[in-house]
Specification:
Strand content of chain B: 15-25%
Shape of chain A: globular
Strand order of the largest sheet of chain B: 5-4-6-8-1-9-15-14-10-11
Order of helices and strands of chain A: EEEHHEHHHEHEEEH
Structural class of chain A: alpha+beta
CATH topology of chain A: Peroxisomal Thiolase, Chain A, domain 1
Number of strands of chain A: 8
Largest interface: A-B, 52 and 59 residues
CATH class of the largest domain in chain B: Alpha Beta
Number of helices of chain A: 7
CATH class of chain A: Alpha Beta
CATH superfamily of the largest domain in chain B: Thiolase/Chalcone synthase
Distance between the termini of chain B: 20 Å
Number of domains of chain B: 2
Distance between the termini of chain A: 30 Å
Strand content of chain A: 25-35%
Chains: A alpha+beta, B alpha/beta, C mainly alpha
Order of helices and strands of chain B: EHEEHHEHHEHEHEEEHEHEHHEEEE
CATH superfamily of chain A: Thiolase/Chalcone synthase
Oligomer: heterotrimer
Radius of gyration of chain A: 16 Å
CATH architecture of the largest domain in chain B: 3-Layer(aba) Sandwich
Number of helices of chain B: 11
Shape of chain B: globular
Number of strands of chain B: 15
């Protein structure tokens, strides 16, 4: 198992590997919108999504492009592994406040109160029919990512896995992603390398 | 390697254990009742747990606690704490009441896992699977996969969700709630009914862990619709893949399947999608049911709970009727169970589908 | 409110409620189909339009099927609002 590409997105700064791709200022909503335009991601549905899905969609663009470049079978042999700590807590709050305020819920908000919805949005955008798993842990543990990737490859026939986290907390966000291939050119997957890429916690996330 | 399922237990709207729940279902009783909802200002049908549970804990913890008591009577205590045991918790919203109480911390689901892990002195922190309505089935698959890869010897699997205004209001806004108790696979079905439950089971590579394992886990599969986040694929794309992958892993052909216990939510599109997916998988004539007419949609618990009940039925040589399914002429090729039926077969296909377009299937062989 | 003003207001409300970020009021014509090839709305958007009618105009639609006729275009929505409010 090798890491073929990584990307990160934290508070308006989008990087593909170490390369700075775009930088936007403003609140979460505003900077994510800015990055959407900066990356010319033509996908109008983006604007209907919650922050967690928006950040997820943006951060997996690069690993997925890399997957296409290396000839990955996105439709059938590429799995999705989402792992995060906050789940869809931010959207939970929005749904609940909307309900209290208006006496009725908003269906377009409610559907984002499931932690695995970013997987669904990514799968729709990129036409992926493979397994899509969503795990939640307090501190993100590299071991759990390795576990998820191994299950998808060794038990469910995947050649590639896009693994990512997308955490939203108190109007800040962080998202990180990697393309992992069963084979290919890249660094070997091990817990330490993963810790330095997608696991890496941002200091503003409260300690678990 | 063979994988054995045992230590099964549950708390449901029909009883505080698996046998009571099953027997109520066999008698055709439902756990669904109307309940006024103050926030939304109207009545809803729900499958609520009525048996007493601890009140000093969040409701979901209390339901899990009750179900785990049932497990502890069946397996050696040291398995709970063993290094070679992994815990997996399947839930969609966990202790969502904490939001209503304004007490939600930054990590709602990991916090639930922490509480359960500490209360039972689990060696490893439990892993939470939050994959919408396939969570329970996926937890079973992930448990089996970890054992098969040699990462652990035993897995304690928990599936749980509770009824909340949070979820009820959302499905109401989606116009997904049934007019009465849900009637899966019936031509006149009008939507879903929410339920709550906790279900637990232990999966192990050691037959000797159990006095009597209830089933052998043969295989599991997953697939995605890539179509819509809240509506199923009209052609069952993800479900077909999940079923095909489960059968391939289990080395089982469609003709060998005794019984399909489907997701069967009672929503118009879900049930039609499932019929199409089963038809495409060569499973059209296999006796089919959904249990949601008995206790509603228990969300993250559903796949595990329903799988355990179906296995229990097969152990008794019985297939239960699909409560609420009367007129099924819309799906002529499906053998929807309208009465309880005897069987000598043992192979169960359990399917689940969820928002986000995720689908899961497992194949279990009931052991006598 | 006269019909023309109501239609303009509706267009703004649709854009806001459905987060149609890249659409402006002047991009929506009165008889343009909202669903299908028109504005490309989906089933969740249809339910959001039901919420819009309830929140802004106090009109309840309990059967989403009824929505299919009401939400054809801005003309049909305005007509429905005027009849029911």
């Amino acid at each position: 198992m090798r890491i073929l590409a990584t990307s990160s997105l934290t508070d308006g700064v989008l990087r593909y590997g170490d390369r700075l791709v775009a930088q936007e200022t403003g609140d979460s909503e505003g900077s994510l919108r800015g990055l959407y335009h900066a990356t010319a991601m033509d996908h109008p549905k983006f604007h209907k999504m919650d922050l967690c899905s928006k950040a997820a969609l943006l951060v997996v663009e690069h690993p997925l492009n890399k997957a296409r470049e290396v000839g990955a079978d996105l439709k059938e042999r590429t799995g999705l592994l989402a792992i995060n700590s906050t789940g869809c807590r931010a959207t939970d709050g929005t749904h609940w406040q909307t309900l209290l305020e208006h006496g009725t819920a908003s269906p377009g908000i409610f559907v984002y109160t499931l932690a695995n919805i970013p997987n669904g949005e990514i799968g729709i955008r990129h036409g992926m029919h493979g397994p899509a798993i969503c795990l939640q842990t307090g501190p993100i543990r590299a071991e759990d990512i390795v576990l998820g990737v191994r299950l998808l490859m060794e038990r469910h026939g995947m050649q590639h896995v896009i693994c990512y986290r997308s955490d939203i907390f108190a109007d800040r966000y962080t998202a990180r992603a990697a393309l992992i291939g069963k084979e290919g050119e890249g660094v070997l997957v091990d817990p330490i390398t993963l810790s330095n890429t997608i696991v890496q916690d941002d200091p503003w996330i409260p300690k678990h | 390697m063979k994988l054995y399922l045992g230590g099964t237990a549950c708390v449901t709207p029909l009883g505080a254990d698996l046998v009571t729940t099953y027997e109520a279902m066999e008698q055709g009783r439902t756990g669904i009742r109307t309940r006024p909802n103050r926030l939304l200002g109207r009545d809803f049908h729900v499958g609520a747990v009525g048996s007493p549970v601890r009140e000093d804990l969040p409701r979901i913890d209390a339901l899990i606690d009750e179900a785990l008591k049932g497990v502890s009577l069946q397996i050696p205590a040291e398995v709970f704490h063993a290094e070679r045991t992994r815990w997996i918790i399947a839930t969609t919203k966990g202790d969502i009441h904490s939001l209503e109480r304004d007490e939600q911390g930054p990590f709602p689901l990991p916090n639930l896992a922490d509480r359960i892990g500490k209360r039972y002195r689990a060696y490893h922190p439990p892993l939470v699977v939050s994959n919408a309505c396939i969570s329970g089935t996926l937890a079973m698959i992930m448990a089996a996969d970890q054992i098969a890869l040699g990462l652990c010897d035993h897995a304690i699997i928990i599936g749980a969700d509770v009824i909340s205004d949070f979820v009820l209001s959302g499905f109401h806004a989606l116009h997904a709630m049934a007019d009465g108790p849900c009637t899966p696979f019936d031509d006149g079905r009008t939507g879903i009914t929410l339920g709550e439950a906790a279900a637990c089971a232990v999966l192990s590579k050691d037959h000797s862990l159990f006095d009597r394992p209830v089933a052998e886990y043969l295989g599991g599969g997953l697939g995605s619709d890539a179509n819509h986040i809240s509506g199923p694929s009209r052609t069952g794309e993800g479900s077909v893949r999940a079923i095909r992958n489960a059968m391939a892993q289990a080395c089982v052909q469609s003709e060998e399947i005794t019984h399909v216990n489907a997701h069967g939510t009672g929503s118009l599109y879900n049930d039609t999608m499932e019929a199409i997916a089963l038809d495409r998988s060569g499973l059209a004539g296999v006796p089919l049911n959904s249990y949601k007419g008995f206790f509603g949609h228990t969300l993250g618990a559903a796949g595990l709970l329903e799988g355990l009940i179906a296995v229990h039925g097969l152990q008794r040589g019985r297939l239960l009727r699909s409560l609420g399914a009367q007129d099924t002429s819309e799906m002529p090729s499906m053998d929807v169970l309208k009465e309880n039926r005897a069987t000598s077969g043992t192979l169960l296909l359990k399917t689940s589908s969820g928002f986000g377009g995720c689908n899961a299937a497992v194949i279990l062989r009931a052991l006598n | 409110m006269d019909t023309q003003a109501l239609k303009q207001q509706l267009k703004a409300q649709i854009i806001e409620q459905l987060n149609l970020e890249e659409v402006k009021v002047e991009d929506i014509s009165d008889d343009q189909a909202l669903f299908g090839d028109g504005l490309g709305l989906d089933s969740i958007d249809a339910l959001e339009l039901i919420v819009l009618l309830e929140r802004h105009y106090g009109i309840k639609i309990t059967d989403p099927k009824q929505g299919q006729d009401v939400f054809k275009n801005v003309n049909t929505m305005a007509e429905f609002i005027q009849k029911n409010s």
